[in-house]
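wait is this the right file?? whatever heres the structure
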């Protein structure tokens, strides 16, 4: 099974930028060809919602409407997925999680992901 570890969260002012990283261990890059990797976020009292995802092999992506034009998901060629977040807003404040599954389709449905990291806090405030 895979292990996912997020990093890069922190405090940023509105309009600022952060880049989150999701390092994937427990499998070679070859095995990741079977996976879709997603970024999700959750606020206190809310449900975990999809932000972006990337199909590992093809590199195709999907974004939630709330982040289109501001966030970019990408990957390297080995084991790390990134979420570049620009023009951050207070409503982006949440715990951000990366997740993985073998569906190999673009989906932001949290119920289709079985493997999750522990999350990293992003706070957008002046």
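ok assuming it is, sequence goes like this
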């Amino acid at each position: 099974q895979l292990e996912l570890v997020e990093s890069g969260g922190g405090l940023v002012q509105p309009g600022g930028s952060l880049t989150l990283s999701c390092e994937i261990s427990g499998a070679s890059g070859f095995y990741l060809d079977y996976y879709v990797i997603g970024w999700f976020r959750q606020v206190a009292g809310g449900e975990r919602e999809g932000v972006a995802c990337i199909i590992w092999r093809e590199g195709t992506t999907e974004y939630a409407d709330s982040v289109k034009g501001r966030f970019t998901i990408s990957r390297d060629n080995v084991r790390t997925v990134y979420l570049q977040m620009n023009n951050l807003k207070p409503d982006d404040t949440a715990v951000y999680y990366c997740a993985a599954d073998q569906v190999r389709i673009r989906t932001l449905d949290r119920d289709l992901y079985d493997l999750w990291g522990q999350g990293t806090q992003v706070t957008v405030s002046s």
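The first strand starts at residue 3 and ends at 7. so i think its the right one actually
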